[in-house]
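Table 4 source record.
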Amino acid sequence: MTSHLKLGVIGLFSSGKDYFSDYLTAHYPADHISTSQALRDYTQSHGLGNLDRDNLAIIANQTRKQEGNDYFARVAYGLLDPKKEIWLVSGMRTIEEIDYLKAQGFKIVLINAKPEVRYQRALRRGKVGEDISFSYFKEQEDTELYSRLSTFSLARVLESYDYCIDNNGELEQFEKSIEALIGRLD
């Protein structure tokens, strides 16, 4: 590669975004920064409370109102290692974050998985408590997708992809799909 391959990674909760990024950083000279990590770091460095989902959503909304809806994408982009050949930014939640990354030359990759598959993965990984029902999981997701009370515009973000990888099957198939995408883009 003569220049950076720049990929923005999007998808719903437990779709496989982190695995996609972890796979690439393990097998290629790649660097990954998550806008969610940028948000957690911001929350901690400013002493803004705990890191639970509800508090982070409040902090994200407040920060975006003050700094712009592309703020966390700008922060993540600035943290990428210039020595790496592949740059990955994941976790975008606003269309402005997508627009910012596309203006920097990023292609957007959607990791797609059915709600039932994502729910089971989240349970196995302990990302949701066993007391969380599938209907509550879907309700939280719908709030993020369609809420007008939030700066999140997740439904629009998910429509902004350049490439889509299906992650409803076995891990081996997902890895083959990742390799096929990199082969097309390299």
